[in-house]
Design goal:
Distance between the termini: 32 Å
Largest sheet: 8 strands, mixed
Number of strands: 19
Strand content: 25-35%
CATH class of the largest domain: Alpha Beta
Helix content: 25-40%
CATH architecture of the largest domain: Alpha-Beta Complex
Number of helices: 12
Structural class: alpha/beta
Number of domains: 2
Radius of gyration: 21 Å
Length: 367
């Protein structure tokens, strides 16, 4: 009987692991690296699945850039607990073999066979704040949630992007009856659009994307209308949109007046809300005259943990998991491609062709 109650033994952990590193923009490499040690107050995880994020692509293409190279891409992560640090806070019961998803701590480290994490679970308030190089206070710990047995590995890796979208929507929600436009029709746009459509009682939700395959997918998931940019400019009246959710990456156009961000501002009604989600360290075009003329409210969910502490995001990640379990976010439909981690050639091709593919979420499978 006592044997039945004993915790599972820690599995053997090798000294080295395979990882996909980025040596410079557009320059990946398959490397052999030491397995990270377990943090005294954290966990060592064996990677099960990592979904590819547009942030990974922005780093890959050079629109976002780290302090130093090389870096290991990947952060939409699901791992299995293989070691528990001696000072781990046991107020949240975690055992060897449990599956964990996290949000925060770093944009990197996922495309590797092991990674360490210092988790904060819902109900905990600990923190380890530091000044980040990109002008905000970050936390060396990460919000986390334990994944229940009824949630598939491939779907569980979408908890992290759902958390990111939810942070923005809960901080800057549309009002009931708003006419909503979502810029982009990629995975974050579909997650945000699905939540808005099903929970925030909009009058209408439309999306705008160059990729016609993704527009078709968005119409099947949440969008009343899906436009390519020219159609959006020609069809949607000026001042007819109340709320814009911008998931676009870096945008470069020959005619600045046709920049989709400026077009969306023309469509916004006076005192409309413009929520910025897409991340880029390259400067983007915003129409300052329209901001003044219309009183457009441009806002975002802050990364800075003095404003949005990691322990609050720990509550959001728990909600994000329930969004997927309940079907509000259709993870099964979003996850359209699986690439084995062993197939390095396919993984690199996926990174290179991400912007033009008809796929939505690609999950790298380490199992």
């Amino acid at each position: 009987m006592l044997d039945d109650l004993a915790s599972p033994a820690e599995p053997a952990v090798p000294a080295t692991m395979k990882a996909v590193e980025l040596l410079a923009p557009l320059t990946p490499a398959l490397s052999t690296l030491p397995v990270p040690g377990v943090p005294a107050d954290g966990l060592l995880l064996k990677t099960r699945c990592v979904s590819i994020c547009s942030t990974d692509i922005s780093y890959f293409e050079g629109h976002l850039f780290p302090d130093v190279y090389p870096v290991i891409l990947g952060h939409e992560y699901l791992g299995e607990v293989v070691q528990i640090g001696p000072d781990f806070d046991s107020s949240t019961p975690i055992a060897i073999g449990d599956r964990v998803v996290y949000w925060g701590q770093t944009d990197f480290g996922g495309f590797a066979e092991y990674r360490s994490v210092r988790p904060i679970f819902s109900g905990e308030t600990k923190s380890d704040v530091y000044w980040a190089d990109r002008y905000f206070h970050d936390d060396r710990m990460a919000s986390a949630v334990k994944v229940p047995d009824d949630l598939d590995d491939l779907h569980a890796s979408l908890i992290e992007p759902t958390t990111g979208a939810l942070r923005s929507l809960l901080t800057n929600p549309p009002a009931p009856g708003d006419r909503v436009a979502i810029l982009g029709a990629g995975p974050i746009a579909v997650i945000a659009g699905s939540v808005i459509k099903r929970l925030f009682a909009p009058h209408e939700v439309v999306c705008v994307d160059l990729n016609k395959h993704r527009n078709v997918f968005a119409k099947g998931q949440f969008a009343d209308h899906a436009y390519v940019p020219e159609e959006f400019e020609e069809t949607v009246p000026l001042n007819s949109i109340d709320y814009v959710f911008d998931t676009l990456p870096t945008v470069k156009v020959d005619d600045e007046d046709q920049d989709p961000r400026r077009v969306a501002m023309r469509k916004l009604a006076p005192r409309g809300k413009y929520v910025l989600y897409g991340a880029s360290q390259e400067m983007q075009k915003f129409d300052t005259w329209l901001m003044l003329a219309k009183g457009i409210n441009i806002t975002a969910a802050p990364f800075d943990v003095h404003s949005f502490p990691m322990h609050r995001t720990a509550n959001v990640i728990a909600s994000a998991m329930h969004m997927i379990r309940s079907g509000i976010v259709d993870a099964g439909a979003l996850q359209t491609q699986v690439c084995p981690f062993d197939d390095y050639t396919q993984l690199v091709e996926i990174l290179r062709s991400y912007r033009s593919t008809h796929h939505m979420k690609t999950v790298i499978d380490f199992r």
